Amino acid sequence: AQSVAQPEDQVNVAEGNPLTVKCTYSVSGNPYLFWYVQYPNRGLQFLLKYITGDNLVKGSYGFEAEFNKSQTSFHLKKPSALVSDSALYFCAVREWNSGNTPLVFGKGTRLSVIA
Amino acid sequence: DTGVSQNPRHKITKRGQNVTFRCDPISEHNRLYWYRQTLGQGPEFLTYFQNEAQLEKSRLLSDRFSAERPKGSFSTLEIQRTEQGDSAMYLCASSLIEGLTEAFFGQGTRLTVV
Q1: CA-to-CA distance for A54 and B108, rounded, in angstroms?
Q2: How far is the C-alpha of A90 from the C-alpha of B45, rounded, in Å?
Q3: What residue ranges in chain B does DSSP mark as E strands?
Q4: What is the pLDDT of residues A28-87, one digit of tens each?
Q5: Cβ distance of A43 and B4 shorter than 8 Å
Q6: 3-state SS assignment for residue A97
Q7: Backbone angle region of A97, left / alpha / beta, with phi > 0 → left and psi within -120 to 50 → alpha
Q8: Are A107 and B102 an interchain contact pair (Cβ–Cβ within 8 Å)?
């Protein structure tokens, strides 16, 4: 069964500093990985995805994520945090070529960027 | 607006009543998903459709939950005999071919059962 772990419920970072939001996954085959962001009272917005190829994936709003197969991780990063990045971030996974399995989400990490 | 649309945005109902939520996906998307999200948790998959066919429904939380997508366009999620534990955000998402494209989410319907 697929699963995602986001080990940190909350991440605090000062504006202008780099940020990392951690994600590890478990699938039996090759993973297909996503990051979504959720602002208050809003649905989830897609940030970026990894299918195959370059392990460093660039996405919206200056975010990027690094796929590490040996560590089964897909950490979200940004070189310089903005106050407006404060939101709830979700990592999700599905198994590539597994047919009809849905996305499985982690519990989310709340990012707080302090001015 | 060409995104995923959900109605209503908020629903307050008394315990024991039935509620129905509607989702209008992005028009060219053939896959439609329903998720439930409770406070402090990530979205939990409920069911999904490919066109009008419901391909997975074993994750629906109980037999009080049902979903339809009669013409392969909009979908409805019904909860019968609501309970306080049903209070949550219900999210709808749509996508093109699963596994190759990301899913786009609506803003959700927040259900409060009193």
Answers
A1: 33
A2: 14
A3: 5-7, 10-13, 19-24, 31-37, 44-50, 53-56, 65-68, 75-79, 88-95, 104-105, 109-113
A4: 888 889 999 999 877 899 999 998 888 999 999 999 999 999 999 999 999 999 999 999
A5: yes
A6: coil
A7: left
A8: no
Q: Give the three-class secondary structure for A2.
A: coil
Residue whose structure tokens are 């059962």: B113
> Which of A:47-76 have CB within 8 Å of B?
49, 51
B55 vs A contacts (CB less than 8 Å)? 100
Residues of chain A found within 8 Å of residue B110, distances taken between Cβ atoms: 41
Q: Which of B101, B33, B42, B17 is nearest to B67 (CA)?
A: B33
- For residue A42, give the chain B residue with the closest CA: B107
In this complex, is the C-beta atom of A102 within 8 Å of any C-beta atom belonging to chain B?
yes
CB atoms within 10 A of CB B63: 7
| pLDDT tens, position by position, B3-52 | 999 999 999 999 999 999 999 999 989 899 999 999 888 999 999 998 99
Asked whether the beta carbons of residue B43 and residue A105 sit closer than 8 angstroms, the reply is yes
Collect all residues of chain A within an 8 Å Cβ-Cβ radius of residue B91: 43-44
Residue A99's pLDDT is 59
